[in-house]
């Protein structure tokens, strides 16, 4: 088991890769935060939830996927299955007791896959602009030049619309392997309470996708919160208050 300390730590996996994580011990159910694609555990939402958990004396865990943040590996060598397994490793080896899993963007896809794999460990789910199956939507949106680059080079570069950083590098393996984990075409075998918070001004995830996702989830305890002025990040002060209220309500039963 990971050391019960309140500081950054590393989790070594069997394949030699290393995941960076931060764990705050406390009462359970704890909260496990799954970030989005090309994001990391230093995001505003993760830090806000950590501070709230500290105030509540509640367990909290955040981590970086393979190829993200301070973890080892290259982003273009990652895949949905690999990042699901990263989340499972953190759930199994770092956290203890039931966990409320919060997933942002791609993390919303990861949290659903985790809930299917560990139904006995997942207490509830909160998706923030949850983006299941985003690899299939991305592939369908590619232009001819991007398809050619993907075929010839094995990767393609997408503009980073959120900051002035480097473009996103998308590996062909990410798109191909993602097909093995698609969820929206059938019932999603998740029976715990689920809350989906979705901005209607989200330019990355169509807000109607949240409605279709809610319909597909097997659980009868599923609610969608539509935020009329909400964007993809959902990280403004009002968004963070909404997230804390949603989490608190679920934990209160």
Secondary-structure element series: EEEHEHEHEHHEEHEHEH
- CATH arch. level architecture: 3-Layer(aba) Sandwich
**Level-1 CATH class name:** Alpha Beta
Unreliable sequence segments: 1-5
Number of strands: 10
Q: Helical residue percent? A: 25-40%
Mean pLDDT: 94
Give a written overview of the molecule.
The protein is 36% helix and 23% strand. It is of the alpha/beta class and 253 residues long. The protein has one domain (8-133, 189-252): Rossmann fold, CATH 3.40.50.1820. α7 (207-216) links the parallel β9 (194-199) and β10. α2 crosses α3 and α4 (134-141) packs across α6 (172-178). It is globular and about 50 Å long.
Gist?
This protein has eight helices and ten strands. It is of the alpha/beta class.
Question: How would you describe this structure in keywords?
Answer:
253 residues; eight-stranded mixed beta sheet; two-stranded antiparallel sheet; 8 helices
Describe the SSE topology.
Blueprint: E1 8-12, E2 18-24, E3 27-34, H1 44-56, E4 58-63, H2 80-93, E5 99-104, H3 106-117, E6 122-128, H4 134-141, H5 144-153, E7 155-158, E8 168-171, H6 172-178, E9 194-199, H7 207-216, E10 222-227, H8 237-252
């Amino acid at each position: 088991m990971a050391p019960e300390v309140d500081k950054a730590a590393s989790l070594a996996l069997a394949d030699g890769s290393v995941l960076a994580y931060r764990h705050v011990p406390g009462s359970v159910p704890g909260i496990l935060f799954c970030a989005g694609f090309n994001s990391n555990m230093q995001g505003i939402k993760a830090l806000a939830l950590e501070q709230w958990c500290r105030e509540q004396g509640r367990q909290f865990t955040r981590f970086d996927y393979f190829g993200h943040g301070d973890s080892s590996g290259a982003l273009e060598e990652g895949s949905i299955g690999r990042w699901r397994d990263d989340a499972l490793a953190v759930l199994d080896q770092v956290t203890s007791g039931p966990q409320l899993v919060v997933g942002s963007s791609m993390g919303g896809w990861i949290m659903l896959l985790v809930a299917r794999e560990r139904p006995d460990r997942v207490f509830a789910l909160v998706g923030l602009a949850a983006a299941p199956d985003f690899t299939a939507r991305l592939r369908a949106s590619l232009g001819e030049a991007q398809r050619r680059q993907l075929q010839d080079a094995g990767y393609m570069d997408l503009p980073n619309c959120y900051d002035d950083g480097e473009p996103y590098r998308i590996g062909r393996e990410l798109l191909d392997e993602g097909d093995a984990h698609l969820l929206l075409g059938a019932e999603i075998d998740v029976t715990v309470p689920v809350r989906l918070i979705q901005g209607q001004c989200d330019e990355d995830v169509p807000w109607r996708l949240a409605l279709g996702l809610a319909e597909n989830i097997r659980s009868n305890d599923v609610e969608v919160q539509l935020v009329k002025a909400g964007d993809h990040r959902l990280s403004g002060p009002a968004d963070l208050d909404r997230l804390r209220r949603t989490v608190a309500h679920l934990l209160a039963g």
